[in-house]
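Q: What would this chain look like folded?
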Amino acid sequence: MEDGFGELQGGWAFSVPQSMCRRIMGDGCCVLTCIGEYTPFEIAVGINGMVWVRTPNVLNDVIVESCIVQCLGVVEKNVPGTIKLVWESWKPVLN
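A: My prediction, written as structure tokens:
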């Protein structure tokens, strides 16, 4: 019998405070919904503070990490604006 979901291939792994992991795993958190407006992605979140994401390219992996980190301590109503600012700050690199 195997435990877990198997090997995570590709993508990008990073750590955040455990409180952020609980937040993005919880109901009603718009962080992941807002990120999904900019790029398709897969995510695995551990209660140990580790997050793994995979997007269509490595640059978007890094931007998703940046979005999540920048949302630390941001109230829900300000999350969409914060994520928009992060994506816009990467526009010169994306073009």
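The longest strand covers residues 50-54.
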